[in-house]
Structures are given as structure tokens and as C-alpha cells.
Amino acid sequence: MSEIPQRRGFSLGSIGGTTIEMETSFIILVVFFVFLNLDQHLGFEYALLWVPILLISVLFHELAHAATIALLGFGPSRVFLSGMGGVTVNQRKARPWQDLLISLAGPVGSFLLSWICSLISSNLAVARTDRMLTALLPQLASANLIWGIFNLVPVYPLDGGQTARNILRTFLSERRSFLISIWSSMAIGAAIAVIALLRGWFFLAIVVAMMVGQNFQQWQIYKAFRRSE
After folding, report:
1. Is the pTM of this model over 0.90?
2. Max Cα–Cα distance, the chain, nearest Å
């Protein structure tokens, strides 16, 4: 995901000029996933695997955005690990096709990490004998495959929502691109939330419903801005 909010986090250092920060909400997300995956048969250490899974997955995804931004000549970014996954901040004036590449870079990065983990599991002996790697790598591969697919859903602020708008921006005005993408995002998001709720996927339903709420707030801000012009 890529936007320009004012936010603060705990510094984790930098890579190639791109700073990495962790927000308190990310710690809460990690704790939530650990307790969500507690299983008395597998043990607490199995649930703790979600600490490196979330950290590696979100960081790799956001660094894929940051790397693409840098390759396109827009300089270093700020990466935040947050409760909604992550966000890459970079103030730039990019063309629609450039923003399209930047949006797609995250899911592509997730798919790449999933493939790398599967490759290691299949070809390195230590990945089949080491207890931690045997448990970690398949989970990491699955998590990134799912994370990549989920991020392609055309709902803001997911990369799919950004991608849909950037495709529209290539042949429509900014205003029409925003209107079509924001209403599509709310409609698709609401449908996913309802389906998830009916199937008992309460966490997914809550997350997507929160996204729809954010979309509606963006729409209200846009209407207020238009009235003030």
C-alpha cells in the first residue's frame, strides 16, 4: 500500500536510504495472530512462528513497493509496519503507469517470497531436517500466497484498489477515476464483508468492513472538498 499520512513508529533502521518503522498497532496485530493460532496439541512455539511470518511478509511486501519507487527515480521512502499490514510513504508526482507498477510491486513481492520459500523447502536438506524451518517455511509460503492474492482485491487501501484506479487514470480524468474506483471499492468490499460474515470468517469480515468505512470517509471528504470549490 502506498499513501502519504503523518505517522510515527519505532525505528528499525534503514535499507538503501529507505527507513523502516514499526507502529504499536503492528505489535498488537502480531500478538493477536499468535493467540489466534494457539493450539494445545502443537504447542505455544508453533503459534510464535507468526512473529517472524508477519514481520518478514509485511516487510518484504513493502520493500518491494519501496524498491520499485526507487528504481523509477523517486528516491527513498518510509516503510511503516502497522496494524493493517504496512504502508510505504513516498511523496512523488508519478504518472499513472508508474503508480500502477508501484502498486503491483507489493503483491508480486509476496508471490516471489512464497516461491522462494517453497523452493528452499523442496531443495535444501536443512529445510527438511531442521524443526523450525520445517514448520516455518511452508507457513511463510502459504501466508505470502494468500497475502498476495488478498492484496489484489480491488478495495482501497489494498494494492488492488490502487491498481484499479491507476488503470482508470490512464484513459479517464482524475475525478472520474476516483469516483468509479471508490464506489467500486465500497461495493466489492461490502459484498466480501457480508460473504465473510455468513461463512463465519469474522476477522476477515471486520477487516474488510473497516476498509469500506475508510472508503466512505474518503468519499465524504471528497464531497466536502467539491462543495468548497
Report:
1. no
2. 65
